[in-house]
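Reproducibility note. Readers wishing to regenerate the assembly model reported in the main text can use the exact inputs given here. Chain order matters: entities are listed in the order in which they were concatenated for prediction.
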Amino acid sequence: MISRRRFIAVGSTGLLAACDRLNSSQAFRGVLRSAEGLTMRAQRLVSPRDALAREYGEADMSPIFRSNGTSMPGTSEYAKHLAESFANWRLDVDGLVSRPLSIPIQTLRGMPHRVQITRHDCVEGWSAIGKWHGVQLSKILDAAGLSTRARYIVFHCADRFSDKPYYESIDLIDAFHPQTILAFGMNDHLLPVANGAPLRLRVERQLGYKHAKYIQRIEAVESLAGIFGGKGGYWEDNVDYEWYAGI
Amino acid sequence: MNDAAVTAEPIEARSPRRFAYRHRLPTRIWHWVNAITVIVMLMSGLMIFNAHPHLYWGQFGANFDHPWLTFKGRPFPGWATIPSTYNLAAARRWHLAFAWVLVTGFVLFLAVSLRNRHIQRDLAPKRDEASPRHIWSDIKEHAQLRFPTGEAALKYNILQKLSYVGVIFLLLPLMILTGLAMSPSMDAAWPWLLDLFGGRQSARSIHFLCAAAILLFIVVHLVMVALAGPINEIGSMITGRFKVPPERPAE
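Running the prediction on these inputs yields the following structure tokens for the assembly.
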């Protein structure tokens, strides 16, 4: 007869071992992963396509907007751009577009832009509210003439994380959402380095890791399969974060 | 009971075992699906909490803001989390997949239990039970570990009803809604979620507090099952057959 305490101890370690074993099983992870598609379809079903993330007032802003992930890209190329105050930074737009573009950052800053005070939700659980100034991504994509074959927009970044290039991707529903902007300003100033200078993505209905910083190139593609690890982003490829980060 | 007069056998021998059918199939299925789902959600939730073990009130909250609850490092140890070593991505996959099981089971349970009148008949407190006097006498009975016997054991007593109703109609809906309120996409679709809870970080705090309340419920529930006769109680939740405890002799 085993004691109750021993029974509970064996039971709970057994449960944990079982969970860890399930977690390393490809088939079971596939079952868990299928929830991501279900969540995306369900959320899209109940969301009007242009449903706006809440916009806050000045009084609601975080006193300090923390940065996360890369706070200073370590490459010599970036250091040179920083030393030049990003005077020669350009945004390249290519892939499945009829008119590839290479837009100087000064031109972007002069374009009609949107100002939005929104909440940034990190996958870890914290939130910060900041003010963003940026050009709607839809304007850039329209200018480049997006092909009807294009299904995803990929953002290539200047920072490297664990020595791998950072990148992210979103689909066209989010790319053409009115609050999806390429932000060059934050809280009434030019974007600080820690928050992605000189250009970052705001995709307000998704979690923080989708908001690529230090953007140098936008690529329109039909499939994410051929790009880096094929899962659509640095975190998706390397630690299995969900590609759809709406929750 | 005519034979009572002619036999002199003790009560136990005369009616050796009386069984009653106590939990209907949908209730039993939901109970066990939930037992697994809620434990997985609690343990994976603790791993998610480990990623940022600070809670705030209001719309925003991060490292430079004032938390009402804060821990150093990763507060919950491996034996309490899924997976057992730090992995936010895997914990989220478990949590968000089992959330679908929780919500689906909850909605089906509500629909079936309204239809077969389980909620109206077994769970809703009757008018006389809801009186403070009745509740207080039930608390005293429980404190002395005197559990209902005979026919009374087939019905939920008022403390059971209140705790089950609290979990089913308060804690579970709050868990689901505060969970949705943490989703930036749901906040765009249903902005009332933010107004209902006073912001995403308030919703996150309420989510954590409700999880603690559910954990408390589970602990008390298991203690009561152990005290009331675990074989009979667990058996009846598996098969539906419940051995009715014989009437307590009058004092």
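We highlight two features of this model. Chain B is about 60% helix and 5% strand. Confidence is low (pLDDT under 50) at residues 1-14 of chain B.
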